[in-house]
Design a protein that fits this description.
160 residues; 7 helices; mainly alpha; two-stranded antiparallel ribbon; two-stranded parallel sheet
Length: 160
């Protein structure tokens, strides 16, 4: 039964929790309130837990609902990342940008554009793997081996 849970059901659950009512979730999702209510009832039936307390004027998340909301958001976010990654691959965009920076390079110049980068590529995950090479010959070798998309080595000697 759990295999039948859909992304649409999870997004409806998230919207209802965030909006505070089924009718507001319906407006956000451009659906009738009755469709939202039925979708959530089906989800609750499939999961075997009650997500919302409907005994009050506005539905409120139950303890189970609060516990599962975080997971629902994570699944929806992962699916968004999955679709964004597929789109970038389809369009020929590079899935990763690797930088090689000399230890003497001013970090402020590197980190200053990162907030703008994060806005432009908000569906991309950013990470900083710690791959440090010791000695200029190792650093230059990695750049020559094209393991970096962009390199900034003012002290790296030129090789023929």
């Amino acid at each position: 039964m759990l295999d039948a849970v859909t992304l649409d059901q999870l997004r409806t659950f998230i919207a209802a929790a965030e909006q505070g009512s089924f009718s507001a979730a319906g407006r956000k999702l451009r659906r009738a309130q009755s469709v939202v209510s039925q979708t959530l009832a089906n989800l609750e039936g499939q999961l075997g837990v009650t997500l919302f307390d409907r005994s009050v004027r506005y539905p409120t998340l139950t303890e189970d609902g609060r516990a599962l909301l975080q997971n629902a958001r994570a699944v929806a976010d992962e699916m968004d990342s999955f679709k964004a990654r597929a789109k970038t691959l389809r369009e020929g965009l590079e899935p990763e940008l690797s930088l090689s920076i000399d230890v003497m390079f001013p970090m402020s110049e590197l980190t200053a554009p990162l907030p703008r980068f994060a806005i432009l590529f908000r569906t991309r995950r950013c990470g900083c793997p710690s791959k440090r090479s010791v000695g200029s010959s190792n650093r230059c070798y990695r750049v020559r081996a094209r393991s970096a998309s962009l390199a900034r080595y003012p002290l790296c000697p030129r090789h023929a």
